[in-house]
Design brief:
236 residues, 7 helices, single chain, Spore Coat Polysaccharide Biosynthesis Protein SpsA, Chain A, alpha/beta, seven-stranded mixed β-sheet
Length: 236
């Protein structure tokens, strides 16, 4: 397992999965019900694993994982592919963590750094690939989430001001980030919107989408549903 400084001189873009330690009673609690708190934490771990594999499939890009809290780094390392950059991070809020991680990765020699959320595992790979192309003509690339946040942000240079004055974990995140970018004179490119799995409705959408995907897709999330007796929101 490498650290960001170990990548000194590397120019390939880097995609960093923003990971949290799965904790019962603290992770994905909005999914309970229909899930139990134990199931909600287990589902998050499954989605995290699938997201790591999704990002790891990108050609000509490095995989990194930002770990919160920092003391969970060893746990995340055990589910990470060889050669993954591991970035323990602590911050006052989500924006502080994003800023620290992206700044660190850009300083390590990557020509571009993209932060990706860990709870939207069905995100099409083409969206991640498109982020690199979009960033060539912009200062910032955003992948807006349907709930008002974003599933991806990419930079070529640090811009700490992008992460200030934002009401994190609300439906105003993308709008406020765009406002911050405009005030800083930054050009923004946007990817197609996608969804995070935060609510019972999102959970049902994920289950339905799995039915249309190849059997070898999202193996960890699929295994979770196969092993759990999950109640559909329509049955509540």
């Amino acid at each position: 397992m490498e650290s960001p400084t170990a990548a000194s001189g590397v120019t390939d873009p880097v995609y960093v999965v923003m990971a949290k330690r799965p904790e019962v009673g603290r992770t994905k609690t909005r999914l309970s019900p229909p899930l139990t708190l134990h199931e909600a934490a287990a589902l998050y771990e499954a989605m995290l694993r699938d997201t790591i594999e999704l990002v790891g499939a990108l050609a000509s890009a490095r995989l990194a994982i930002a770990v919160t809290p920092p003391e969970a780094a060893d746990d995340i390392a055990r589910i990470s592919p060889p050669g993954t950059l591991l970035v323990p991070v602590a911050g006052s809020d989500i924006g502080d963590c994003l800023n620290k991680v992206l700044t660190s990765l850009l300083a390590s020699g990557s020509r571009a750094a993209f932060a990706v959320n860990s709870d939207g595992p069905t995100l099409p790979l083409v969206y991640l690939e498109g982020a690199q192309e979009q960033l060539k003509q912009a200062d910032v690339v955003l992948g807006p989430s349907e709930d008002g946040g974003y599933y991806l942000i990419g930079l070529k240079q640090p811009h700490s001001g992008l992460f200030r004055g934002v009401d994190w974990s609300t439906e105003r995140v993308t709008v406020q980030t765009l406002e911050r970018a405009e005030s800083l004179g930054l050009r923004v490119a946007q990817l197609p919107p996608w969804y995070d799995v935060d609510t019972a409705e999102d959970l049902e959408r994920l289950r339905m989408e799995l039915r249309s995907l190849p059997a070898d897709a999202l193996v960890h999330t699929r295994r979770f549903f196969d092993r759990q007796q999950v109640v559909s929101p329509t049955d509540l």
